[in-house]
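Lab notebook, bench 4. The sequencing result for the construct came back, and we need a structural model before the next group meeting so we can plan mutations. Quick request posted to the team channel:

Model the 3D structure of this chain.
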Amino acid sequence: MANPEVQPTSDESEDRRDTSPVNQFRRAIYGVPVTLTVSVGQRRLSVQEVLDLTPDSVIALDSRIEDPVRLMVDDKLIARGELVETDNGGIAVKITEIAEEADASEG
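Done. Here's the predicted structure in token form:
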């Protein structure tokens, strides 16, 4: 898989021509870095269970291997996707769905 580049949409190109204060603000924050977290599942453990973990421990999660992963920014769901392998053997996420605003609150 080639290194994905984010290409501007036609809406973003139009935003560049719009000099309204709202769009000036949007352009100013476009480059602000955010941390994207990919969540494959979760499991609630007691403190004792955490302390009992060893290098060979296996922790079952609340999802199945074929379930979509969740892409989160600041604990807000922004998209869902599937794990894929890159050309060099790394892990990437193929976006399959952009979260609706109501979904973002589920975190």
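The two ends are 29 Å apart (CA to CA).
Will bring this to the meeting.
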